[in-house]
Description:
Layout: E1 5-8, H1 19-27, E2 30-33, E3 37-41, H2 44-49, E4 59-62, H3 65-77, E5 87-90, H4 93-98, E6 109-112, H5 121-126, E7 131-137, H6 143-151, E8 154-165, E9 178-181, H7 184-193, E10 203-207, H8 209-217, E11 224-226, H9 234-246
Parallel strand pairs: 1-2, 1-9, 4-5, 4-7, 5-6, 7-8, 9-10, 10-11
Antiparallel strand pairs: 3-8
Helix pairs in contact: 1-9, 7-8
Amino acid sequence: MKVKTILVSQPEPKVENSPYFDLQEKQRVKIDFRPFIHVEGVSAKEIRLQKVDLSNYTAIILTSRNAVDHFFRVADEMRFKVPDTMKYFCQSEAVAYYLQKYVVYRKRKIYVGKRNFSDLSPLIKKYKDEKFLLPTTDKLKPQVPETLNDLGVNWKQATFYKTVISDLSDLENVFYDVLVFFSPSGIESLFHNFPNFKQNNTRIAVFGNTTIKAVEDKGLRVDIAAPTPETPSMTMALEKYIQTVNKK
């Protein structure tokens, strides 16, 4: 069956040169965007209940842009002036670049991993005498605490924001040829909103092994998977699939 409509379970890209817009134009398909999950901040009061005193920490580990936003939001709510001496350990260049929204980059001690959390290990180990705070979501990958525990550093995890299922009830009678997912939480949201969901002819595209497993655990069929050596991005995987089925 040909692909004419795609629903991506993420917010619409804010950049004009997004590969999704190129895909839409090039393959003449309609692509809609709708976050199946969203992030809500945890109040300063709740964080205090987690026995977190920001003044106790000399280094912050930031795994995402959400972590950056919510750390500084909470610091502001607590009227805590983040000292210039604070060290920032960022999981990727994208996170480090986003940090500039809150600090003067060249005047701060910022350490950057390549992409995965494990890439930060040598940097954290080098500064093992610091007191590390990990502001994070309520759905943290087990690899992160495992890595920090293996390093034997002084660290504390605190939930600064939560992943919440979005209300998708308005999509009940709307059907797409392809649904695109990037996390197990997206699959959880699908079944929370539509407990009787049947895949039928709907193609499911997924990014990452944990998402693939979440789809298969629900008895669904994975039709498009990324990343692969041939299609390292979701848009490339979609384009390859569309080119194959739409030319028939």
